[in-house]
Amino acid sequence: MTSSDKREVNIAKAIIEIIDKYVEAKRSAFEQFIDTCKKIAALSSTDPAGAIAFVEGQLQPNVDARVFEIVSFAILKAHYGEQSIFWGWTAEELQQDVLMLYKTGRTNANDGGIDFVMKPLGRFFQVTETIDVNKYFLDIDKVHRFPLTFVVKSTDSDEDVRAQLRAEAHRKYGVDAIVARYMEAVEEVINIPHLVEVFEGVVRTGKLQQVMDEIVLQSRVEFNVDEEDEDDSAGDA
Hints:
There is one protein chain. With 237 residues, this protein is α/β, with parallel strands linked by helices. It is built from nine helices and seven strands, in the order αααβββββαβααβααα. The chain has one domain (12-226). It is 55% helix and 13% strand. It has a five-stranded mixed β-sheet with strand order 3-4-5-6-7, sandwiched between helices. A two-stranded antiparallel sheet has the order 1-2. β4 (116-119) and β5 (124-128) form a beta hairpin. The longest helix is centred in the N-terminal third of the chain and has 32 residues, at 12-43. It is globular.
């Protein structure tokens, strides 16, 4: 090939168009998700079976990671909100507090943070869709091996997830003491079947509407949609 055959092709415009189309498609999908959530939340008292089927449909391995995290949070917040503990500085000064779960930031945000935090127990929760030992141990290192509960977008059992982590850790570190220290920091593994079981318990206690309302609220926050934007869109239509 001679120098005269060489040509420079600027693909920047094509790449920008591809990115814009991707963003448009994702935004459209999320807006549709929010709209569906709102409709089902409004009908959950008259059509509980439909609302239950919708929520369980979001607890699947192929569901968007952001949607899975939002739905998981709504379910776990309602679940732990049914529990309380007694604590205090002395045995004579005990107080009763309901367990409260807080979402600490946006989903999939590369901010190095922890996804959920529980008060007053101080439990940390991390949502993940992979069984990647580097991802798990990086999360554990963020909090200096403070125990973490992992909410996993998988149907693998707690035992299987731990076995995979342990096997990968041995391949990575090869030192039993190091592997043991990391594995001890995995406080609990909450998989999809566990989430479905927890959700069924929440429904039995009459908190289906609470779960639906929380999903709508967190979806609005996540996708930067507020009620004024929705009202404007309705008016334009």
